[in-house]
Amino acid sequence: MAKSSKKQIYEDELKVIAELQKNAKENIDVIVKNCGFSRQKVWRIIKGLEEDKTIWGYAAIVNEEKQGLKSYMILIKRTTLPIDEKLADKIITRQLENLASEIDIKIEHSMLTHGTFDWVICFRAKDMIHAKKFSEIVNRTYWGYIGEVHMLEVLFPIRKQGILNPDIQKLKEFL
């Protein structure tokens, strides 16, 4: 098989992605060594993945507790009311994110889902009071389109973005 076949390119990209997911801040020379590729090839693969938006960005995985924050999730079930263009634009322009930042809420994930719930929002807040305020903002912003909302507080993050919590032994306190 030719070294530049689509299948081989895809497999090479997967190797680089796997290394970046372990530690995106890793020195490129370590990534090169772990993948067995040249420095130029790894750099070219990363740039290509960024350009075609396979890689959206890079983020630090943070211990919220050390920042005085807690993690929460809102699980949303939609009504049967069809979403109009105005509401779609509200979602796409990230209006909710702007409203959240006004009360010191940081949205980490916002995902359209298929199953019992239609939308999941993961976010950080100072406490349950702020989290409930955010939940109320979500309800007001999408009034008529939301049938059911459930909020969960994350007690202990075992794994985030594929990275195991370095304080995993503390999990015993919650079990």
Query: What is the overall silhouette?
Result: globular
- Give unreliable regions as ranges: none
Radius of gyration: 20 Å
The average pLDDT value, as a whole number, equals: 93
Q: Could you tell me the number of beta strands?
A: 6
- Mind summarizing the main beta sheet? 4 strands, antiparallel
Give, in spatial order, the strands making up the sheet with the most strands: 2-3-1-4
Number of continuous helical runs: 6
Structural class: alpha+beta
Alpha-carbon distance between the two ends = 51 Å
Give the topology string: H per helix, E per strand: HHHEHHEEHEEE
Structure description:
This protein has 175 residues and is of the alpha+beta class. Helices cover 39% and strands 20% of the residues. It contains six helices and six strands. The protein has helices at 6-22, 28-35, 39-51, 85-92, 95-102, 128-141; strands spanning 70-78, 106-112, 119-125, 146-153, 159-160, 163-164. A four-stranded antiparallel β-sheet has the order 2-3-1-4, covered by helices on one side. A two-stranded antiparallel sheet has the order 5-6. The protein is globular. The relative contact order is 0.13.
